[in-house]
Design a protein that fits this description.
Blueprint: E1 4-17, E2 21-28, E3 32-38, H1 45-48, E4 57-64, E5 70-79, H2 88-104, H3 112-126, H4 132-145, E6 167-170, E7 175-177, E8 190-192, H5 194-204, E9 207-208, E10 219-220, H6 231-249, H7 255-261
Parallel strand pairs: 3-5
Antiparallel strand pairs: 1-2, 1-4, 2-3, 4-5, 6-7, 6-8, 9-10
The chain binds zinc ion.
Residues 155, 157-158, 160, 177-178, 180-181 line the site of zinc ion.
Amino acid sequence: MAQEVRDRGIVLGTVDYGESDRIVTLLTRDHGKVGAFARGARASRRRFAGALLPFTVLEVRLVSRRGELFGLSSCTIEESFPGLRESLEAISLAGYAAELCRELCKEREPHPELFERLRAYLAALAAGEAGEAQRMAFELGAVADAGLMPRLDACARCGAGVSQARACFDPVAGGLLCARCEPFASGQRVRLGPAALELLREAQSAVFELGDRAPGVRLAVREPVPGEPRVEARREARQAVRRYLRHVLGKELRSLEVLRQVGLEG
Ligand SMILES: [Zn+2]
């Protein structure tokens, strides 16, 4: 008899299959990103009763099947974040975060900290408490969870200290480059002033309050005071993150176009 496992998972997306079934992509806590075959999910509304909407946190029972997909035998909703669906910005950022997780993870490679991070970020978005600082903290945390953290404390090529007035961030090299290594920088490099570098370092060291099963998990990230003269710094830091993600993913995320349409991406 096929073995059943229990886990928790966040719905990253679904595709219809045939006339009555659906395939759900889940970021599970203990089994990583998995595809699960939800038999009858389209034909019967009661079968999974609204549980398979994107961004819903579920308790799931999964059954191993032949091939890559699990079977989804049952699920219950743990959190559905109704607040996400009340804001175009929030739902656009949720879609972006889900796509980022989907692209960063290989199938069935567990990243429990990424599961908790995504859940915390979705909770913050749903509560209207996630701005640009939280987004950047999520992005840099997610790449770190996937083992792809950019180096911002020293030169990514030789380990020396970085002392230029305008630091050189090279996505291809994997982080900052010192003055001696700068001539080796790729065409993807971004110049970062001290304020932009500080923003990135703050985002990278942001503390996520993870592992708490109570609803309302939050990201402990300081959002810059409105009106702080950091517009240029934010633009530089955003460009560095955008280019870094494009480099490590090998492509641009499709949801960036949605973010552009709602004015959240330059
Ligand atoms: Zn160097």
